[in-house]
Each structure stands twice: as structure tokens, then as C-alpha cells.
Amino acid sequence: MQKKTVFIVISLLIPIIAFAQHAIGSWQTYMSYHNVTHSEPAGTLVYAIGNGSLFSYDKEDTSVQCYQKDNPLSDTDIAYIAYQSKYKTLIIVYSNANIDLLVNDKDVYNLPDYMNKNISLDKDINHIYLKDEYAYLSTSFGIVILNVNKKEISNAYILNKKINSCAVDDAKIYAASSEGLYTGLLTENLLDVNNWNKVSDAEFSYLSIYANELVGSIPSKGIYRINKVDEDNYNYSLLKEGAYSFMYVYGDKLLAGNDTSLALFDGIDKCHYIDHGLGMKHLSFNNGIYWASCSEKGLVGLKYNESSNQFLSTSSYIIPNSPKRNLFHHMNFQDNTLLAVGGSLNYSGVVNPGTFMIFRDGEWINVQEEGIKDITGREYKNLTSAIQDPTDSRHHFASSARQGLYEYKDYKFFKLHSIGEGGLEGIEKISNGMNPNYVSTNGLIYDDDNNLWMVNNGTSNTIKVLKPDGKWVYFNNPDIKAIETFEYIIFDQRGWLWVNSMWNNGSNDFPGFYCLDYNRTIDNVSDDRSIFLKSFVNQDGTSVKIGYCYCLAEDKNGVIWVGTDKGPLVINNPSKVFDPDFYVTQIKVPRNDGTNLADYLLANDAIITICIDGANRKWIGTRGNGVYLLSEDGMETVQHFTAENSPLLSNIIQSIVIDPTSGEVYIGTSKGLNIYQSDATEAEDNFSDAPYAYPNPVRPDYTGVITVTGLVKDSDVKITNTAGKLIHSGTSNGGIFTWNGRNTEGKRVPSGIYFVLAADKDGKQGIATKILMIK
């Protein structure tokens, strides 16, 4: 029988829509700026480092700008900045020893030579001192000299010792190390270590030239004037006693301070001592205004009132709207809202502060942290998962690896559900000397009846449910009693519960997964069946030995993908999980090298997270190898994003979730959050609404793809001109179709109106829209 395609021509009357959405293939980056540790005034701007990221504050219009990898910076995790005013250049040093020069706040010159230098020495940069056109970088082995004007590394003095700080006058370089103070004459060959002279045993942490004199700070002692006795000996005299964590010179001011106090020098012999309590990590000065970096409070402008010996604020605290921390160990996407928490089941997460961040409508909400410990009497740390009440977008829960279940209302702490409240239980066997009140929860998820499910690790009743009426339901499962390593729950299309057990911690904990068929009768356990699988065979009958089971995801065909340290395992028929002949599939990818051999898919990668997009493709996050986008069957690698070939912040991926409506892929990395605009969304159930295309109109300077959204799954799409000539055709990815604006010969089409005709794969439904091309 011949299949006919039906298009609804009346849809051509739909007006052209200009839809504001990110272009396919574009990236966004979100990093934390909350822990402000350093600032540098630069004309009308003040640059600042927050959590290793750079932002600027415009003193004239009070705007804030964030700078990120590839927009326009070259890297992430900034360790140090300094501003060279003559050349209007901000020197940016990263923790990996990469260097950027940001000139005129727009042009970036990357200097990777020092980072890439093949030397066995530690390349950490501890301090920057500016003199004329040079920046002197104090490193863990000596001093590296950067010519700011020429934008190049001009020299390096290897002293074979860690240099804390250096200073330069017209005659000498002064270098402070843990072994003492060294000097080198600028007229000598300082590449020869023998031309450096030790002149004092004092261990200075900071050096500078102030009022034509050499000054330095000694930890826990104070600020000193350093005097030359002779070429081989320098002594030092106290200027101001104190335990100062920083010391810098800005113009005619010498500033030395710590969290609570400051020594402000208006001259070498004129010091104001100020108790401020602002939590300063750094203080800079320009044009009468002091700029204080006050950790999590932010950046604030201050004026000094000499008569009262106090600072007065000239601005509010400045922090860009951003996540509280770069901790995205687990994410959840619900109702156009991203939920992210910063803890993990792994013991490395125990030290992470309680971090719960919400991203909605382009704004970050950092859920309350302050005061929770005072209310509960317990440390607020290591949140492992978060969930939003389906009936109330301002009601949330977060699980904790140690304290129980936290409940929040209106983004404020409301209640801690823990031992003794008729719900949760503590771990029955105490390992590593931990407290008997150790209440470990994880894997929060709602079912269709708004029951909140979770794992309560290390107990007799590992699976627990909090019902909407506040009552608890326990599932007693002897096979998994007292196991401590369960993580994330999913429900499959049958309503069965699956949860991964991450690793073997040396007792009765094993990597694998648990499946519970509770027959959708939450209050009747008599009809339940369950199984805990910790050993596997593949499709060839070969044993598959895994050390870690990180995640589970069900695709649109009901196939379950399991992330392990041996690559992905695939359960093609999950209903057979209770059968004795159950097996997993390891996908074999042909080598295509003439040997007729194949390799198991990603067998050398730890698969930390798996997420399924609207086209049933698999987004795979790895520990150390970035992100893979695999085809529906896993046989083709559609994309492989790494920190080296994309704006991806790190190759260590912690979590991935997808906005099903927009197709945006949220990628939580060890250094922050990336969002990638993919070319697939969830398909519409039918053509009830007209599809829309963007950008529309398509202007001459646009070079990206044109996106058509609002389609049903596997739509057959044709693009024609007004004469009915076929220009392009293809099949949608879920609910999205993309077109590069070119005809079948690869040429950009001329100006005019082009019709987009879409039909479902059976040819029974059709719809259309139009695109205006301007060449």
C-alpha cells in the first residue's frame, strides 16, 4: 500500500515568530563567584576573584560582568591577578600555571608556554610583583619574568627553592623564601644561581617597595622595614606588630591585614590600626576608595574616616548572581527548574558544606545554610540529592549522607527528619569510627502519587517512603540489609524501582543494583518481589567484574543503561531481571581496521552519569574523559566534548540532566556548570500547535543552524521555496529539526520565504510554518 503524506496547508497563514532561544551548539557557563579573595582596581572597573573565577564591577554604572572560559578567557580556576595600569593589562594566572593577559577589558592574549614547559619542577605561582613593563612571578622554584608590553616570558631564574614573594627596585631583586631573604643585582647574570646572595635568615611571606624602602611581612609577627647593613647582611625593624595574612602596596598606601584588622600606612612611619571585623581576605585602593574582598560576603567599596578610625561603605556587597559553590555532584531537573547539591556518598564529600542551589528563569537561588547547625545541633554537610514537591515549587527536600532528610519551605530550612521521629534509622554497623547517629539518606524521587521515596543506607529497611500525609512506609529487604552504598533511585515504565549500589567498601557492600517490583501497592508488601544483583554475565556468557556502579537510566524504549567503571552495561529486557538466565549487554563497537574485531563501548571509562535526550540518544558523563553523546543504540559517537576541544570546564563530570522542553543539557563538572544547547527536545504528542522556527527572520550575518521546534517524534520534514521546489529534507531529533540554510548543492539559499512542511512518520498528521531568509 502506498503511504501518502498529508500537510495542513492552512498552517502557512501562521505569522513569522522571532523566538528567543540559544543557538544550537552554543554553550553557557555558570561558576560560583561567592568567595571573593582578591581585587584589582583598573580605571572605572574593579576586577575581583570569587571562587577562582573573574568578575568586574563598573564604578560608574554599577554593572557586573563575569568572565569565563572561552568568553573570553582561556582557562578556569584563577589563582592570582595583578593589574598593570600603563598597558591597561590584567595579568591572570591560573592554578595550572596557564597565563592570560586581558587588555583593555576585551582582548585576551594567552601565554601557555610556562604551563607547557616540560620541567620536573612545581610550577605554582605564589605572587606577582609589577615594575615598569615587567611582572615578576614568584614560583615554587624561583622567579619567572613576564614582559607585559611584549606579551611574552622573557626570563626565568631557577633558584631551586620556593619563592613566597619578590620585590624589585632600580638596583636589585629581593626574593623571600622559607630559607631566608635573597638578593640579586640587576646588572649581574641572575640565571647563575651563584649570583644570588642570602642576606637574612628571616622568613618573609610578602615583600614590596614602599616609600623607596624595602618592607616585608613575617607570619604571626608583623610588618618590617628591611635595611641593608652590607652586601651580605640585612636587618629588619618592626613597623607594626600583628598576624597579617596579606600585604600590598597601592599608590601611596601600604595595606596589611587579616579577617578582623588592618594596618593602613599613609607613610613609612604613619600607621592607622583599624579593627573592622569584615572578614577581609585582601584590600586594594584607588582614587580614595578601598576595595575589600570579604570572602562569602563579596566585594565592597569603603572610605576611611580618620577621625573615627573606621571604614564607611560606599557600595553594597557585590557578588554576581551565581551558584554558591562549584559543587554539582547531583542534579535534578523539574518543572523548568534545576536543583543541584554539592555532596556525595563517597567519603570525599563528607567535608563539603551543605550546598543546595536552585536555578530558575535565569536566576540562582542559594537555599539557606546559615543557622541550620544551631537549630539542629548537627553539622550541615554533604547533601546528596534534592527534590521539589510536585504540588509546590517552593517546597523542597534534600538528603544527606550523614544527618538525615532536610525539608525546606520558601528556600528556608523547615525541618530535619532524623532518628526518633518515626521515620529514618541510623546505620546499624558503625564503620570508620563514625557516630551512632549517622543517618544516611539518598536517591530522593517522587512517584505519580506524590509519595517521596528514598534510600536510608545501612539499615534493615533500606527503602523508605514519606507519604503526602506525613506517614512513613518501610520496605524490609533482607538481601540489602545494612548495605551503606545505595545512591540514586529510578522508576521504570512498569513502575519498578531500581537503585544502584556504588562500590565495595570492604564489608558486605557490593557494586551492583537492586530492583523492587512493589506491584504499585505501597501499603501491601505481600505482593512484592525484589532482587539485588552484584555479579553479571554479558551476552556472550562472559563474567563482567565491576568495581563501581555509578548510575542507572531508562531510555524511551524501556532499555536500562547502567554506568560502571567498565563502561556502560545495557539491560535490553529489564522484565527478565528476576530470571536465572538474566544477562547484561556490553555494546561491541567494530574497530573497522580490517581485523573483524570489536571493542566494548567505553570500557576504559568510568561512566558517572547517563541522561537520555528527546531523540533517545545517550549523554554519557565520565570521570576524566569529558562527555560523550551516543546515538540511540550506542553504536555511534555523535559528539565527544572535552575541556580541550570545547568550553567544557573540566573533564571530570559529576552529573548531567536535560531540560526536555528546550533541549538544554546541564553538565555538572568538578569546576562548575556548563549548559549546552543540543539539537533534540522531547517530541510533541501531536501537531496540536504550530511549530516555530528560530532565528526568524534569518539575517545575512547569521551563520548558525535554523531550528524548528514543536514537532512530533521522527517527523518527516521538507523545506521548499514558494515555487514548491524541494530545498532540504530530513527527520527530526525528537521534537527538533535543524537546517543550515543551504540547498541540496550546499549553497546558501537566496532571500525569500521558505516553507517548512512536517508530517508524522505515518504520514497521517502534518503541519507547516515558514522562514524568511535575508541574504
Description:
Residues 1-20 form the signal peptide. InterPro entries: PorZ_N, Reg_prop, WD40/YVTN_repeat-like_dom_sf. It comes from Bacteroides salyersiae. It contains 2 helices and 67 strands. A hairpin with a 2-residue loop joins strand 23 and strand 24 (253-257). The relative contact order is 0.08. The strands form 18 sheets. Strands 2-3-4-5-6 form a 5-stranded mixed beta sheet, with no helix packed on it. A 4-stranded antiparallel beta sheet has the order 1-60-59-58, with no helix packed on it. A 4-stranded antiparallel beta sheet has the order 7-8-9-10. Helices cover 1% and strands 47% of the residues. By secondary structure, it is mostly beta strands. The longest helix is centred in the middle third of the chain and has 5 residues, at 372-376. Among the domains are: 9-23 and 690-773, Immunoglobulin-like (Sandwich); 545-678, YVTN repeat-like/Quinoprotein amine dehydrogenase (Methylamine Dehydrogenase, Chain H), CATH 2.130.10. The two termini are 43 Å apart. It is globular and about 90 Å long.
Number of helices: 2
Structural class: mainly beta
Beta-strand percent range? over 45%
- What would the CATH topology of the domain at 545-678 be? Methylamine Dehydrogenase, Chain H
Give the CA-CA distance, first to last residue: 43 Å
Which stretches are low in confidence, meaning pLDDT under 50 for 5 or more residues running?
1-20
CATH domain class name of the domain at 545-678: Mainly Beta
CATH architecture of the domain at 545-678: 7 Propeller
General shape: globular
Estimate the mean pLDDT confidence.
94
What is the count of β-strands?
67
Gyration radius (Cα, Å) is: 31 Å
Q: Can you identify the CATH superfamily of the domain at 545-678?
A: YVTN repeat-like/Quinoprotein amine dehydrogenase
Helix amount, in percent?
under 10%
Which strands sit side by side, in order, in the main sheet? 2-3-4-5-6
| Largest pleated sheet | 5 strands, mixed
